[in-house]
What we know:
Layout: E1 2-3, E2 10-16, E3 21-24, H1 39-46, E4 59-64, E5 72-73, E6 77-86, E7 92-102, E8 107-111, E9 120-122, E10 127-135, E11 140-151, E12 157-169, E13 172-180, E14 189-197, E15 203-212, E16 216-220, E17 238-239, E18 244-253, H2 255-258, H3 261-266, E19 269-279, E20 284-288, E21 292-293, E22 302-308, E23 312-314, E24 319-327, E25 335-339, E26 346-348, E27 353-355, E28 364-373, E29 377-381, E30 384-388, E31 393-397, E32 401-406, H4 411-424
Parallel strand pairs: 5-12, 23-32
Antiparallel strand pairs: 1-2, 2-6, 3-4, 6-10, 7-8, 7-9, 7-11, 11-12, 13-14, 14-18, 15-17, 15-19, 16-18, 19-20, 19-21, 22-24, 24-28, 25-27, 25-30, 26-28, 29-32, 30-31
Amino acid sequence: MDSKDKDHILSLKVMRLTRPSLFTGLSVGCDARDLPGEHLNADVRADIAIPQGLPNTGVGHMLLLPQSFGNIYLGETFSCCLCVHNDGKDTVREVSIKAVLQMSNQRVPLLGEDDNEMLHQLEGNETINEVIQHEVKDIGTHILVCAVSYLSASGDRLSFRKFFKFQVMKPLDVKTKFYNAEDFISDEVYLEAGVQNITSGPLCLEKVELEPSPYFSVTPMNKVLPDSNTLVFGRMNVVNPHDTRQYLYCLKPRAEARSNPAALRQATSIGKLDIVWRTNMGDRGRLQTSQLQRMTPQYGDVRVTVERIPSVVRLEEQFEVCLSITNICERTLELHLEFLGGGGGSVWSGVSSRSLPSLQPGQSVSLSLPLVPLQTGLQTIAGIRLTDTFLKRAYNYENLAQVFITNEKSKEQEEFFSKWVNDST
């Protein structure tokens, strides 16, 4: 970006500071048996921009200075150099340079807004260089306003302004999905985040982390092993244009949030994604999303979770399921428990219905309920009904957990059967 004004003795040039790119050449070769023979191949070998031994790759080993302003993406650092040159022979005093970046909703001063601004003096054919930097945090149209004022040799105060417009584009497209596990064994929430590269070049994702809200703690699930530092994407996580990386995070409520179920039910903010990347030439960018919001599960006034259950049980051997029943409303609850059936593969054992102790707001009660498995395979534990005796409102729980039922005999059964056979003979 450059500009000149014929009415002023000073000229202003604004140059963006960016890294060079690799020279891309077009090599034209042929087989030695063709009509041109070795003439074209000799030109390829003589070209200093084409790497030796790799004439047909198109990528050279020389750096190319930027030929245009280029693209600016959200999260990158915009850097430019302001160059003020005295085109005349007379000395110019009290030279002031100011730069302001204007966006649709704000105005950011970058240079010369301090009260103690230092004024320069320019001799004939001398130059002042000022470097400004700004981390771009908004997409859309940006206007860099540069103002130069000075005192001419005749003592007149002169000034001029130049405007440079550029667009800031979005580098990444982030899509999220939430999976609530509250209806099963735990309070866990799973976040799946898809990060897509929508720039024109490859990006190396150095960091994609989730900063959780105060209600949750986070466990990333993107490593080969939980205790290793190796990501499933490899050591160099390079994402080509229009490609997407999928990340998975497990969020668990903190201890203080578990003690306040009503507040946890209203907690819709999960946290923020913090993404750091580098371009193919090493330029660094950083982007942080806004607070990610989820739809909270609807429990009503009562919440039931499974605290403890065996993963494998034997056929016709009684086992216990430990449930936690929590009052998450603002009033005292009087609940009545009923067994409707164990889900087909098992039956509840014991009294079929009973009244539970009164539950104050936020209070929980733990119950150990016995079950007898009747069918082998992976079976669903279901068939519990809680009735609010005051509002006559019923809550049915048809999918509490799952358990695997096997028909292998226990050691006690084998010893008893062996002893019974020996005694009979």
